[in-house]
Amino acid sequence: MKPTLMYWIITVLGIVWFGIGGYDYVMTNLGDEAYLSILTEQQRAWIDARPTWFTAVWAISIWSSVLGSLLMLIRRKLAGHMFALSTVGFLISAVWSYAITSPTAFEMTGWFGVGFSAAILASLILFVTYCGNKAQSGVLR
How far is residue 86's CA from residue 124's CA, in Å, rounded to a whole number? Predict the structure, then answer.
């Protein structure tokens, strides 16, 4: 089946949205001072103290969503699996960030952080669902 214009719009939005997450990951892990200057000292300390496994889970979550977006561009079913993997990674990192570590992400970012995290989770779920539907209809091969 041939993709519609809406498919291409959603694909480009995914590349941009999840690409921003990739940019955040790179700049944070490179320790870019200009990029990190908007953070509080508490947030910077939290980033510096995060465990290696958290960075690995974050990387898997970020880069699988970017890969999922690119796979949508070339119309591959694997895109949905990449978004599902990203969702699992996001949930693991969110549980640690919001419920286990101290200070929690909520203590550092308040409701804005919760809302932003909810938007990320919602977008991942939407992309998993959308890719599943497009795989069933034959748009993703």
Answer: 7
